[in-house]
Amino acid sequence: MQSKDTTVDQYLASLPEERRVALSAVRDVIRKNLDGGYEEGMQYGMIGYYVPHTVFPAGYHVDPKQPLPFASLASQKNHMAVYLMCVYGQPEQEQWFREAWAKTGKKLDMGKSCVRFKKLEDVALDVIGEAIRRMPAKKYIAHYTSVIPPPEKKKAPAAAKGKPAAKRKPAAKKRAK
Asked: Which superkingdom is the protein from (predicted)?
């Protein structure tokens, strides 16, 4: 569920107490381990941690007006979630994450980047913190740009360059039945 709240404090205040306490605890761990190249704010209707345009001007390739997403926290309809883009698409990071979580004895409910939980006790906070700490902004940007190349500049059409447009072939006539 995307929130219409515009600040993290508004978002947290709008949650039931149990969820507010759980997400606040995860938030504290993220902020404690977050590299200075990231910022916290609302992004995509949830608490977001992202590389701001001042650090990475290109922004997110899907929507360059958005800063580059790194992690998020959300209260969804049937669960809470922490989204870890620092694990998504990086097999060695994902393997480390899954192994570290398994060592805690807690059950991991994970999608590609989404770690779902219903109670704070379900979360391996130390593993979340270490996953965040292991990925400083410069390292994250380097990985991101290695797998998502910058958009190519579109070439201007020939007519725009003062050249005549290519001649079109006439459309083929349909045969009568």
From this structure: Bacteria
Query: Domain ranges in the chain?
Result: 8-161
Tokens 């969820």 locate to 19
CATH match for 8-161 among 3.20.20.70, 3.90.1150.200, 2.60.40.10, 3.30.410.40? 3.90.1150.200
Angle between helix axes 125-133 and 17-33 (nearest 10 degrees) is: 40
Question: Which amino acid is residue 13, in one-letter code?
Answer: A
Phi and psi at residue 106, to the nearest 5°: -90, 145
Q: In whole angstroms, what is the distance from residue 29 CA to residue 141 CA?
A: 22
pTM: 0.80
**Token output for 137:** 């902004």
As given in the structure block, the two tokens for residue 154 are 């579109």
Task: List per-residue pLDDT tens for the chain, 177 residues long.
Answer: 577 878 999 999 999 999 999 999 999 999 999 999 999 999 999 999 999 999 999 888 888 899 999 999 999 999 999 999 989 888 899 999 999 999 999 999 999 989 999 999 999 999 999 999 999 999 999 999 988 866 665 555 555 555 555 555 555 555 555
For the chain, give the number of residues: 177
Q: Where are the alpha helices (DSSP H) in the chain?
A: 8-13, 17-33, 91-104, 125-133, 137-147
